[in-house]
Amino acid sequence: MNTVLKIILQRLGLGLLTLLVVSIVIFLAVNALPGDFAQVILGQGATEQATAQIRRDLGLDQPLVMRYFAWLGGMATGDLGTSFAQLNFAQNMGGSGGVTVVEQIAPRFANTMFLAGVTAAIAVPVAVGLGILAALYRNTAFDKAANVATLSSISSPEFFMAYVLILFLAVLNPILPSLSNIYEGMPFGERLTRTLLPALTLTLVVVAHMMRMTRASIINLLASPYIEMARLKGIAPMRIIVRHALPNALAPIINVIALNLAYLITGVVVVEVVFVYPGIGQLFVDSVKIRDIPVVQACCLIFAAAYILLNLTADVMSILSNPRLRHPK
Predict the structure, then answer these.
(1) Distance in Å from the first CA to the final CA of the chain
(2) Which pLDDT does position 204 carry in this prediction?
(3) Rounded to whole angstroms, what are the CA distances from 277 to 111, 199, 285, 287, 291?
(4) Domain that holds residue 236
(5) What does the DSSP assignment read for 174-221?
């Protein structure tokens, strides 16, 4: 157990180091974006004095290194700064303060997590079920059709799949709403209905990986001696897969599920923009348009942290489920 704990701590340390490196890349990339927030706010008729005054008020005239360490220190304490756009709006309205980045991101992040949760609740059972059936009826018409359908869905861009679903489920057959304009306090049933279309889009994108990994893992185990013994005893093929093969194939399946869940959080930007879903992806795109640097940096950092955390989770679960990794000697 001490060896397992040591390995987990090493992975966590590497994850924190990776997040630090990624934070440097995020800060440099965001500040290298063309355009300037002061010029975007003031428009084409902005004078140099007005632009310089806004840059001083926002601290954009300070050296890049000082701004990074100030942002890193605030990030370590949970302070991601104040939104430039909201601060400018408050000042125009006669106020002195603005909305913090945390206050602006928190409800959007909750919406994105709700979308990811609905997608996972649909995608994981469908993928595992299709993988089991494809392994049970391998090399049959069902197996080939499932592979063709899932590979076609994953090969298509997210926005294309989104528009196809909008055409068939919202325009030609008005079953679901084409816009996912949810709001705080909306009843759960209505929120779920408005979230189903983007969730189905993400499901079509991520289900192929999980289905094919489930199929490959189970087929690999079906050649094992204990599976052959179960067959000789006359046990039903479905029971052999569910009771004997599937539990031993969980390690790679869990790994690929965790990696696809990471994609659900980081890859929702295009889907949220298409469906006008008020999540963190939509906020990220809107903030890039107006060069709201603190919000863009915070969104990028959340995406990176979620991806690293879920990759670490997949790594740790692979270690815990594999005796050869738990006892490398």
Answers:
(1) 14
(2) 86
(3) 8, 11, 12, 15, 21
(4) 101-289
(5) -SS-S-----TT--HHHHHHHHHHHHHHHHHHHHHHHHHHHHHHHHHH
CATH code, domain carrying 151: 1.10.3720.10
3-state secondary structure of 279: coil
Taking alpha carbons only, the member of 109, 35, 86 closest to residue 282 is 109
Dihedral sign of CA atoms 282, 119, 300, 280 in order: positive
Mean predicted confidence (pLDDT) in 217-244: 81
Pairwise CA distance, residues 158 & 194, whole Å? 18
| Number of C-beta neighbours around residue 324 at 10 A | 7
Nearest partner of 111 among 180, 203, 39, judged by Cα: 180
Exposure on the CB side of residue 17, measured as CA atoms within 13 A: 6
**What is the separation of C-alpha 151 from the centre of its chain, rounded to a whole number of angstroms?**
20
Separation of alpha carbons 282 and 272, rounded Å:
6
Stretch 145-149: mean pLDDT, rounded?
A: 86
Least Cα distance to 179 among 72, 49, 271 occurs for 271
Q: What ranges make up the beta strands (E) of the chain? A: none
How far apart CA 15 and CA 293 sit, in angstroms, is 25
Residue 133: inside a domain: yes
Does 65 have pLDDT greater than 80? yes
> What is the C-alpha radius of gyration for the chain, rounded to an integer number of angstroms?
24
Reported as half-sphere exposure (CB side, CA atoms, 13 A), residue 10 has a value of 8
Helix 293-321 to helix 250-266 angle, to the nearest 10 degrees? 180
Q: Can you give the pTM of this predicted structure?
A: 0.81
Q: How many domains does the chain have?
A: 1
Q: Of 110-124, 166-180, 261-275, where does mean pLDDT reach its minimum?
A: 261-275
* SS3 (DSSP) at 82: strand
